[in-house]
Amino acid sequence: xxxxxxxxxxxxxxxxxxxxxxxxxxxxxxxxxxxxxxxxxxxxxxxxxxxxxxxxxxxxxxxxxxxxxxxxxxxxxxxxxxxxxxxxxxxxxxxxxxxxxxxxxxxxxxxxxxxxxxxxxxxxxxxxxxxxxxxxxxxxxxxxxxxxxxxxxxxxxxxxxxxxxxxxxxxxxxxxxxxxxxxxxxxxxxxxxxxxxxxxxxxxxxxxxxxxxxxxxxxxxxxxxxxxxxxxxxxxxxxxxxxxxxxxxxxxxxxxxxxxxxxxxxxxxxxxxxxxxxxxxxxxxxxxxxxxxxxxxxxx
Length: 300
What we know:
This protein is an all-alpha fold. The protein is 64% helix and 0% strand. The radius of gyration is 26 Å and the shape is elongated.
């Protein structure tokens, strides 16, 4: 798919050069119309088919690893927890994670690195590279944040520390690839993980939670702490604290969303046309019979 996108974009660049040449010739409207029609078709192919299909496939792959990588990976020594509970233990998720082999966080970084290498290897336009990589980070942020609000086994002090550690590794990975600008897409997960590690005993702690988790609304914070155990052995939560969080959420519950969505997609810069200095006019023999005459005239 990346190969097709790169070739399609290159054809559009070639057509831009042809058009700049044809526009200088007198009585040449027919050729110019042919070029414009081809440009329209290629633009539609690129923007409506190839790029959306590529993003859809990559999002699906990244989304599969997002929550296991950021929320379940436990590589911070001394903060491991196996309290997954219920059906998760039944299916052996804890035992599975303890087996030797690469972690889900490693697999996610490997997948992202592969995407980066593929885009660079096929010389896709800078605008498309940025769009794809930002969408991957946005997908990770949305999927992992929504999972964190839903999963009771993740709402505890130690898991908050592990998630922050995992996010730190993602931050280092982004810095190596020059993608630090995309870390904003992970900020809601980072703030949610941070508030899990804060004190939750006094009324004053509620203010601190809302200050540090300023991207989360009251309803989202309430969902997060409704899954938090008041008997957490590392950072217990008082009944008074929980009640104050619940009261704040009740005020704005009618307008606060809980889960976040990947829609609508942010506006990204359009792919620019790369200047082409010359055109190879060679047409492979197998294509000569099928090559439209009006296209061949453009190469003369």
